[in-house]
Amino acid sequence: MTDTVDTTPAPPVPPEQIKAIPVRHYGRWVAGVGVIAILVLIGIAFSNANINYSIIPQYLFDPGIVSGAWTTLYISVLAMVLGVALGIILAVMRLSSNPVTSTVSWLYIWFFRGTPVLVQLLLWYNISIVFPVLNLGFYKNEMKDVMTPVLTALLGLGLNEAAYMSEIVRAGIQSVDLGQTEASHALGMTQGQTLRRVVLPQAMRVIVPPTGNEFINMLKTSSLAYAVQLPELIRQATDISSTSLAVVEMYFVACIWYLFLTTIFSIVQYYVERRYARGSTRNLPPTPLQRMKKYLRMFGSFRRPEVAR
Length: 309
Description:
With 309 residues, the protein is mostly helical. It has a domain at 72-230: MetI-like (MetI-like fold). Helices cover 68% and strands 2% of the residues. It has twelve helices and two strands; from the N terminus they run αααααββααααααα.
């Protein structure tokens, strides 16, 4: 009887599991400790400062402060609407092949972007020195009665904003491929129809994010209307501080209101950007609530990462 030899290959020996040793980043720990130490020192300095923090909640909803916050909000909205509407017109004029309209638009942008907003507000506020009477034929009145603080702030902020919005709109329009315009003209659309139905809807993806930033900046820039006697937030806070002698405390109250307003509109801007980004990206960025849930899940299941095999 012949013995059979087993020629079956032996099973491969699995490799020894790699033990990953995480790299120690001592610089991160030093930087983190340093930042925490600076924050602690700042907190100690403010806690020992001569500030009566207890009266801040008392004035947070003072009728004067609430009225000033409302004035800040509506003058910012009106000025932004004026700036956007005029900015679109200026952008179209700038892109026009007509040398007159293009030059006028360029000169407007050059002037309003090159001079400070505060100077423009003061010029509008004192324009009655140059033109004592406003005579439009169908309407005649003293210029000092026409140029109220509200109108002064609206013109000063809105006309200045139009110069910046025109550049934002122009960049958005130029971001749309020229073939879109040529295809629209081939379908028989006029220049205006092409702009309204084809170009601007696609340009909104580029226009919306900086426009949101401009509005948030407008909320803060409106504080310059304090110089033209507009009873906005800073003006009301200053008036209250002159009687209560709580100067720094009232500025803290104003800061809280500005932070509240800018936070609300930052959230609105985030969702508007998501809406107009739907056609340009496959994966939309997570909402703040989704991001918070993700971080909570990561915190709940926190463990040292393993090396992928």
